[in-house]
Amino acid sequence: MKTKKQLSLKQRLNEEHTAGFIFVLPFIIGFLAFSAIPIIISFCLSFTRYDILGSPTFIGVENFVRMFTDDDKFWKSFGTTFFYAVVSVPLKLIMALFVAMLFVKTTRFTSVMRAVYYLPSIMGGSIAVAVLWRRLFASDGVINAILGTDIAWLGRKDTAIWTLIILSVWQFGSSMLIFLAGLKQVPVSLYEAATVDGCSKVGQFFKITLPMLTPVIFFNLVQQTINAFMAFTQSFVITGGGPRDSTLFYCVYQYQRAFEFHEMGYGSAMAWFMLLVIGLLTALIFKSSTKWVYNESKEG
């Protein structure tokens, strides 16, 4: 009897394991086909000269040497992307936190307004929105009509990049919702105690709200920094990298090298360099978090 029960239990566990494996199998196949295998292939191609049509030729680190020493556009695109990330990410987080604080108190229309403010984050990376944005900032667009000016926003080096930054800041919906969830976790008793002590609203924000939100700020900072360095659609559709490469994002230049100039090996090398940069920046943010992120378990 005991043996039969053991066999029955073992058979049931095997069936559960099989069912679990079947359910995760689509993810495993998708991960291998669209992530793991392409990553391995791109790493191998980064050491080759490959024009897509022919066979790859091994050239060692020649792509990387050329990238760092003989390609001015590489450094220009990297600098443009770095500037875009450094400016747009803080502005987006500030806007997201500001709007989140407006929606902390629930009213009859709060849910509708949250959805309205979140919509740009859903549509922001689409081709349709990029085309619409290009029309808004055209010489005969709505922005000039409202301001009563005739500025070629997308045709000037000093203004074109800012149109893309404004678009990025406009897509603050996802960060806003995360900030909103973090604000709802701040104990009300802290604000009550601060009010009794005579602390102003501004003082409560800097002494209570911001410190308690640092874990959420940290999460949004990492996520938005990565997204900023991977920006593509804005530059590719709205400005095409112009004028005079002033909005040429790194991913756009990588795309041009890989698919327009048929230098897939060089494009793969560029991809791995950006992966290294993003990994390094993420590591620095994680390293610095020990000095400014509030950790309840460590604080006791």
Describe it for me?
It is a single chain. The chain is mostly helical and 300 residues long. Helix content is 76%, strand content 1%. Strands 1-2 form a two-stranded antiparallel sheet. A hairpin with a 7-residue loop joins strand 1 and strand 2 (57-58). Helix 5 crosses helix 11 (233-239). It starts with a helix and ends with a helix. The model has no long low-confidence stretch (mean pLDDT 87). Keywords: Cell membrane, Membrane, Transmembrane, Transmembrane helix, Transport. One of its GO terms (cellular component) is plasma membrane.
What secondary-structure arrangement, pairings included, does this model have?
Layout: H1 2-45, E1 48-49, E2 57-58, H2 62-69, H3 72-102, H4 110-123, H5 127-136, H6 142-147, H7 157-170, H8 173-184, H9 188-196, H10 201-229, H11 233-239, H12 250-260, H13 264-292, H14 296-299
Antiparallel strand pairs: 1-2
Helix pairs in contact: 3-7, 3-8, 3-10, 3-12, 4-8, 5-11, 8-10, 10-13, 12-13
